């Protein structure tokens, strides 16, 4: 028969405490995972617009705000206005010239922050336009996030004479 001693009781209490702590952590982790909302639910788009263009290339701009507690990553974008879209960034090439190129890994939007998509900076590049984009029209985009959730927004087309960037097509 087992006779409880002060030492055995202390060991038993320690083992039970550890087991409860582990069970509590596992349950909390599972609850956090279950409560994690899709990235698309944390993001809003403000002041969006698209540069008017007759053919070739255009770009979409605006603010992507992450109202969530976790960073989110936009990995792609689609629209019927263009069969080929890329997420672009501005970088300096080896000669010191600023160029636009596809960003590796997508746009990371930090938790509680806004990522500005703007001429001369990060933007959504539309290539091989399906039709002319005229001021006053609207273009609908679908953003896809790293967790495969999606977010749709509509942006007006505006005339804009700036943003004559160079593009790295390597």
From TrEMBL:
Keywords: Signal. Residues 1-30 form the signal peptide. It comes from the Bacteria. This is Copper chaperone PCu(A)C. It comes from Promicromonospora kroppenstedtii.
């Amino acid at each position: 028969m087992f006779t409880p001693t002060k030492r055995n009781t202390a060991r038993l209490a320690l083992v039970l405490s550890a087991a409860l702590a582990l069970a509590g952590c596992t349950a909390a982790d599972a609850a956090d995972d279950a409560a994690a909302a899709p990235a698309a639910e944390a993001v809003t788009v403000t002041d969006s617009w698209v540069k008017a263009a007759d053919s070739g290339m255009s770009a979409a701009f605006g603010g992507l705000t992450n109202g969530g507690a976790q960073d989110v990553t936009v990995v792609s974008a689609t629209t019927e206005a263009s069969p080929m879209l890329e997420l672009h960034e501005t970088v300096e090439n080896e000669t010191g010239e600023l160029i636009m190129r596809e960003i590796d890994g997508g746009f990371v939007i930090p938790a509680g922050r806004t990522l500005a998509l703007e001429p001369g900076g990060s933007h959504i590049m539309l290539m091989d336009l399906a039709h002319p984009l005229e001021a006053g029209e609207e273009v609908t985009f679908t953003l896809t996030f790293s967790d495969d959730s999606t977010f749709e927004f509509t942006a007006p087309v505006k005339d804009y004479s700036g943003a004559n960037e160079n593009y790295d097509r390597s």
